[in-house]
Amino acid sequence: MRLWQRSMIALARSRAVTEFMHGSRVVRPFSRRLVGGGNAAEAIETAQELAQRSIATSLFFLGEYVDSEELVRENVEALLQAVPAMAKAGLPLHVSVDPTQIGSMLSWSLCRENAFCIARAVADAAAAHPLAQARTPGPALMLDMEDASVNRETLALYHDLRQEGLPAAVTIQSYLHRSMDDLKELAAGGAFVRLVKGAFAESPAIAHTVRSARDASYKTAVNLLFAPESRENGVYPALGTHDHAMIAYAAEVAAKNGWRRDQWEIEMLYGVRPAYQRRLVDEGFCLRLYLPFGRSWWPYSIRRIGETPRNLAFVLRAAVGA
Ligand code: FAD
User: Which residues pair with 59 in a beta bridge?
Assistant: First the structure.
């Protein structure tokens, strides 16, 4: 599985493959299922349709692994335009960002500068449009967590944004051995944390690589996030998973420890397990979908195939028109 994941991540990072795939038709039907729109206006329309079904969203502009200043600028511009448009449409403000799309491959200081700029735009748009901050947990710039080489910098960036009073949230990968210590610190500070299993092919020296150990580490992290003290500290847990066993486990721990359903949420990717998503909403859970938009769909789509090889079958079926 790690070899498969590593290969898919290499394909996502290859500029030549990306250019080729953007010009080909093969994977496009699959990506259409996962992408909420070609531009911000289309994505906001999709987000409004989802809001009518009581599903919140986090906008994500497609454009990871960017190593040119021009593309970084384009990514940041796209987000700076999408944020006020989202607020104006009356949608709760939540955007997700990968460090590699806002400059971390060029320099960490550029990435920081851009993250501050986007977080300020989120805060300003929320202040100008009260509806945009209506729903718990309030407006947020969610920092996605990429591979372990940028883990420390991403966490430091989160803490710096919070120190400036900006609306930041951060993703923690339960598979990393260091994550329990990171989570303890975040829980003590009342953070908005998205808990995921982790999507990169990390070495066993720093991460759990066997499925059973990864699932066990997720449950340990759930216990910490949903402890009664975490709620008292103001923690807002977001479970970034499609795994019904993890969600059922967390729901049980949450209920046992006195968490109301509106004090935490489940986050899933747009287009993944839609029937299950509908069921969760019908059962009264808060659900947010990670909603990618833009034209650079290849790196995002191939990473999803890396996470779930079954998605490859979907692509092949689409390619032969089956
Ligand atoms: P799994 O055990 O992998 O899957 C459970 C079941 O869900 C599977 O049986 C399968 O049927 C289904 N499923 C899972 N994923 C898919 C898929 N892509 N397509 C179709 N079916 C699927 N990882 C990071 O490292 N950093 C991040 O910042 C990050 N952000 C994320 C944000 C969100 C909102 C989500 C949902 C995930 C994010 N991830 C991130 C990915 C995460 O780490 C996992 O790799 C991914 O969610 C797959 O694991 P799972 O918990 O869903 O469980």
Answer: 95, 291
